[in-house]
Design goal:
Elements lengths: L23 H6 L5 E6 L2 E6 L2 E2 L12 E7 L5 E7 L13 E3 H4 L5 H19 L11 E3 L4 E3 L6 E2 L4 E9 L6 E7 L10 E4 L6 H13 L3 E12 L4 E10 L12 E8 H8 L13 H10 L4
Parallel strand pairs: 1-5, 10-14
Antiparallel strand pairs: 2-3, 2-6, 4-5, 7-8, 8-9, 10-11, 10-12, 11-15, 13-14
């Protein structure tokens, strides 16, 4: 598997208007100047640690779903070729293969952004081939960004579901942060509290409801801190910082959350540095950013 020249991603843009061009993907696949990010399951090939491997279209194995992601600074097409998860590697990448959760935080920001775009779109391409209204197999349109049902005529688009993720500060001590341990995790892994917005619910209401359900506390001073697309499964994570009204009310729901714990700033700093007895979210996640920003006093 040879590598194409590396795209100039400093000028990358999605070029959404180009998606209406007939045969855009086929023409880009035939262009030797195009760059392809191959996705298998949730992993991408690497040239080396912290750098994605870009392929020429002619080198990509058969059988994948293709989509147009955008153009680099030179105007060359950037494509995704997406394959289902397999026990066997599609090809031997120079730096091996890495999943988004594992390597996303080590990539340059623009490469991480494109990895997330390709994986988010790719999961929809593989998982939603049939019309949800009538069950007919749909056909891809708009360079992989929509599906049209040939039977009922409906057009379908990739779903993105809003979800909140919240770090909780103490009402009495600015050097305490409340985190929770999910029931599916090891006992020493902690993160922020998160949940999907329900139908007819504002993000602020979601913050109050989810935090009370999972951690037992009422919160105030809810502050928006940023967002992140996250393809597990198809989320837009909206990050918040909030303050507990009563620290002593904190308790795990016993179902989704197995434990909650107030951590000191020193404990968080030690964990961020890779020490201590707790594990925090990986650097690719907005949860890690919420925690590290609080620790650094940027909240």
């Amino acid at each position: 598997m040879s590598s194409s020249r590396r795209p100039d991603l400093e000028g990358f843009h999605r070029a959404a208007d180009d998606r209406a061009m007939p045969d855009l993907v086929d023409e880009a696949r035939a262009d030797a100047a195009s760059h392809v990010l191959v996705i298998a399951g949730d992993a991408a090939p690497l040239d080396e640690p912290g750098r994605l491997h870009w392929s020429a279209a002619a080198d990509v194995p058969d059988g994948g779903e293709w989509a147009f992601l955008g153009r680099d600074a030179t105007g060359s097409a950037v494509l995704a070729a997406v394959f289902a998860r397999s026990d066997d590697e599609l090809f031997a990448a120079p730096g091996g293969w890495g999943g988004l959760r594992v390597v996303g935080g080590t990539l340059p920001a623009r490469e991480a952004e494109i990895f997330i775009e390709a994986l988010s779109l790719g999961r929809w391409l593989l998982d939603a081939p049939f019309c949800p209204a009538c069950g007919t197999r749909t056909r891809l349109e708009k360079a992989g960004w929509s599906r049209r049902c040939p039977h009922c005529g409906r057009e379908h688009f990739p779903r993105t579901d809003p979800a909140v993720i919240v770090a909780i500060t103490s009402a009495r001590d600015p050097d305490l942060l409340l985190l929770g341990s999910n029931a599916l995790w090891s006992a020493n892994r902690y993160s922020c509290f998160a949940g999907f917005a329900e139908a007819g619910e504002s993000l602020e209401s979601t913050v109050h409801r989810e935090v009370h359900e999972e951690a037992g506390v009422e919160v105030e001073d809810v502050r928006y801190r940023g967002s992140q697309a996250w393809p597990y499964p198809r989320s837009l994570m909206l990050g918040f910082l909030a303050t507990a009204v009563d620290d002593g009310a904190a308790r795990a729901d016993g179902e989704e959350i197995a434990a909650v714990r107030w951590f000191t700033r020193d404990e968080i700093g030690e964990a961020l540095a890779g020490g201590g007895d707790i594990l925090l979210p990986g650097t690719a996640s907005i949860s890690h950013r919420l925690i590290s920003d609080w620790y650094a006093g940027r909240s």
